[in-house]
Amino acid sequence: MPILVCGGSLRQGTPYATTMKDVLESAGIPSSSIWTEMQSRSTHENAVYGSPVLRKNGVKRIALIVEASSMPRAAASFRKEGFVVIPMPIRFTQLDIAAKDFVPHWQAIALNGENIHELVGLAWYRLRGWI
């Protein structure tokens, strides 16, 4: 089963797709099973630039693997491109009820930043008509 890795470089350097391909190959995935898209710089562009690669190979249904917090936006982006999406989220945030959860600390601030990023991203994508 082929794997599409998406992601260009946000700055000068190695594209994210190249790094992901290298990791997959080091895990034993044959290079011929890994498709790359190295232009995209956002979730929206992952879907827009990755879609032609998938369509060219007759793919209509995908298992989408992204961080759990990004899944709603990513899945909606690929659905907008016409794909049936099977979400396969990774990196879930686990909340535990401990005393430290009621005291401000940097982890809570970072998590709030991620959540705000995703909420604003969803609103922005809807406003732009991307989802």
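Second entry:
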Amino acid sequence: MSDVLMGKVALVTGGASGIGRATAILLADAGARVLVCDLNEAGAEQTADHIRANSGEARHQQVDIANEDSVTRMVEYCITEFDGLDCAVNNAGVGGPTCSLDQISLEDFNHVLGINLTGTFLCMKHELRFMLPRSKGSIVNMASGAGMIATPGLAAYCASKHAVLGITRTAAVEYARTGIRINAVCPGSTDTPMVQRAMEADAGVGRMITESMPIGRLGRPEEVAEAVLWLCSDAASLVTGHSMLVDGASVAR
């Protein structure tokens, strides 16, 4: 899908590592000018540097997606630097604690929901405000296979990702006649720093993650990024309100 985003402007949150980094690089390879955003500013800058070193065009911006002022500044910076926003990938998120529901503190529960759900809502809100007057755009939210099925030990994470699918579908219907498409990607267990940390911290979690993939391996961030690229492209012009599994048949078990 080389050059399918030529002339487009893309914004990617959580772009410092993992799926976000792979997505930012792939969108740039497809011709987009990319704003790489992350709370980890140094990591976002490294991703942008990589894109520029490979003849792409990128900027970076620190953002706390749970803070509306920070999100507003992010979108405004994208528009100032690139004079537009065509594709928004709301990828930033956290895993949260691994424990039974009765052991989750309210602080931890609110932290996971605040980033994964409220952060996605805030990004969509301000992206849509720019896209609506222009009657075009594609928004891709990063959900999870855990947004479709139960994942014992991850109640807060599951709740947040189920909710991301709900807000994605609702927004897709609300804006279906505006020229803006809104979809979600649902990865299975993917070889990212977040997943590796979880596997290293708890051997039981590591086994659960490994056994969750019928294909016998973790997904690669680049494989998820390919799905995001397609949803951002005009090839997916009739696709909105979709929750795309990229999970090696995990949910199909």
